Give the backbone structure.
Amino acid sequence: MPWQQIKARITDTEAEHMEQLFQSLGAVSVSFLDAEDEAVFQLEPGATPLWQQTLLSALFEEDTPIDEILLTLKSASRLSDEDLVVETIEDQDWERAWMDEFKPMKFGERLWICPSWTSPPDESAVNVRLDPGLAFGSGTHPTTALCLEWLDGEPVSGKTVIDYGCGSGILAIAAALLGAKRIIGVDNDPQAVTATESNRQENGIDAAVLTAHLPGEAHEPADIVIANILSGPLVELEPILSSLTKPNGKLVLSGLLDEQSQALINAYADDFDMEPPVVRDGWARIVGTRRA
Ligand SMILES: C[S@@+](CC[C@H](N)C(=O)[O-])C[C@H]1O[C@@H](n2cnc3c(N)ncnc32)[C@H](O)[C@@H]1O
């Protein structure tokens, strides 16, 4: 069955009100897309950030009187003809359409991130099977990629690892499949803890090897602590991340912009020997070694 779609150019502050308006007019689904290819990075647990210029896309059933809907929309909001586009689209499998965008990706020499619904291109590689669900971390963001490449190039076999801000569990699972002996994922978003647990099972990793939980549990310091979180929280987390890293252990920080690197190096300089940042698309990764 074909659908009628109305696309409306709105701002992020209008999103909630517009979603309700379209739903009250009979839209069977309302979704939001980036109108200007503007990057968004999740800031708060559970938050669903939107782009400043947002494209609202609303689907209506084939027989909906779309001209009447347009007239109501224009009288009930500031939207005018220039903000609105109507299209007829053929039916498709919506879930699959999104999934088709997420393809297997290689990081470093031996590590692949493969959507859980595809076959790995190289069965002999280290293949992380992943369904990000609602949590952050599919490998497509440069900060995740920088962390995966670091893990791939590091002898993690037999080491203990803490993935602070584990999201989908992508880094924790990569560490486990690269041979780390014990990995703990921590995240203050319960959805991330659930996603990590489900991806652990998907990858056949024993719960004794990888566990994920909310912050607050005490842990022995680890050989490797990896935290891909924004710069502000990383500065605040210094006492915690520092106490979680063994003497001579490695700390990997990402999620910060290159221009924030120096402030972060300064924040960790008392406890760590910090290396220069590695930068990709404006995002940075900084590695430090905990002083003995
Ligand atoms: C950018 S995502 C990283 C996900 C994954 N580790 C990756 O590299 O793709 C950051 C994660 O950190 C979590 N987070 C943010 N602030 C945190 C905090 N103070 N304590 C624990 N987790 C936090 C968020 O919920 C989110 O899942």
